[in-house]
Design brief:
Blueprint lengths: L1 E7 L5 H15 L4 E6 L10 H14 L6 E11 L2 H14 L3 E6 L7 H6 L2 E4 L7 H19 L8
Parallel strand pairs: 1-2, 1-4, 3-4, 3-5
């Protein structure tokens, strides 16, 4: 199985981007992992939130494959403690044949069309984070989950 993180808009903070890259490099030791960035929309001032979500959604959907297992990173999704998330991920390693794709939407979330193709939604916190910061939080938790599954000493409980 491959893990793919699909995000809207680039990470503009160099320190955040460096940390994300660090965890992505660590993940490569365990699993094929890629991050794909869809460029942020330009000229969005005349667009309302629904129209912006729709246009971003069209871009996200164009990058998905029919056999992808799509998981939204969404504030309304299911929350896990780190060990439970590791167990959830371990189950996906057994059940998802090709790509496990996690989506990070833009500032207004996901369109109904994107929500309709998602099989699951995960939330990393009850709090709201910027879509740039959530990338770092997610890749760190993904790395943590894999080290838990491998029995490595990164996670302490």
């Amino acid at each position: 199985m491959k893990i793919h993180l699909l995000v809207v808009g680039r990470t503009v903070s160099s320190p955040l981007a460096a940390l994300i890259d660090d965890y992505a490099t660590r993940l490569h030791h365990y699993v094929p992992f890629t991050i794909e960035t869809i460029p942020a929309l330009k000229g969005t001032k005349p667009l309302d939130a629904a129209r912006q979500c729709q246009r971003e959604g069209e871009q996200l959907l164009s990058r998905l494959r029919p056999d992808d297992h799509v998981v939204l990173l969404d504030e309304g999704g299911r929350q896990y403690r780190s060990v439970a998330f590791a167990s959830w991920l371990g189950d996906k390693f057994q059940r998802v044949p090709r790509r496990l794709v996690f989506l990070v939407g833009g500032p207004y979330g996901f369109s109904p069309a994107v929500r309709s193709v998602a099989r699951e939604s995960l939330s990393l916190s009850s709090m709201t984070f910027s879509h740039q910061l959530i990338r770092l939080l997610f890749v760190e938790q993904l790395y943590r989950a894999i080290t838990i599954l491998k029995g490595e000493p990164y996670h302490h409980e």
